[in-house]
Amino acid sequence: MPSSRSGGPLPFLDHLAADSARFRAALENAPADVRVPTCPDWDADDLLWHLAEVQWFWGEIAERGLTDPDDLDAMNASREQRPADRAALLDFFDRSSKRLHRVLSGLSPETPLWMWADDKSAGYIRRRQAHEAMIHRLDAELTVGDRTPLDCRLSADGVDEALRIMRGYEPEPGLTHEPSGPAVTIATVDAMHSWTVTPVRVTGTDDDGDAIDTQRFLVVDGPDDAAAAEICGSAADLDCWLWNRPAEGEITRDGDAVALAAVDAVLGGSID
């Protein structure tokens, strides 16, 4: 993945700390009831509470060393109620954010921890929380009208995560897939990386016996000369696009309109 290519591994913990701090600074003096344009059901305090809760949750898992999903109910019983005022919200965010960074800093990336994704490790929680902080930092900045650039390498890794984990599919027992469109190449213009995705409709039954019928991508690294279309943009803009956030620059779309529409169909479901 891009994080292990040029420049060495990404410093996810550094990004987590920096974007969490920027998130806090953006919202500290924002009116409590100002709407979040990228999450219109939320106001500024809702956004602050959301990231504070997320960082509390993963910090709690890391601190307790939880690996069994059956332990989550007991953990959640210790969750604090949402504070009623901004000062208390900020205090909860500060405690949650500092604890998350501290605990993850003290764990080897290989440490097993519960995770909803296939990669159940402290290393993936570092990665996921760096991206969580970055995208919500952007939400906070858009809320107060003070957008700043996203890191190129982190954004390229965010594209990889969004395509492979958030919207990707790997064949597994109980599920089948059929292509819903031809292959499309997605390429960064600044991070020297590209992916080729094939939209597929995934159907079947999951481990709990629930019916599955969803749109996902099969993903491989690199361009494909046989791809029916190509989507290009900066890593930051592509990451925003995949997270249903507004891009700053131009994202170009060339090639077969049906292929591009099939990609859009996969992106129609929210991953917020």
UniProtKB/TrEMBL annotation:
Gene Ontology terms, MF aspect: isomerase activity
Mycothiol-dependent maleylpyruvate isomerase metal-binding domain span: 14-140
Entry keyword set: Isomerase
One Pfam family of this chain: MDMPI_N
Listed InterPro entries: DinB/YfiT-like, Maleyloyr_isom, MDMPI_metal-binding
PANTHER family: CONSERVED PROTEIN
Protein name as catalogued: Maleylpyruvate isomerase family mycothiol-dependent enzyme
Native organism: Terrabacter terrigena
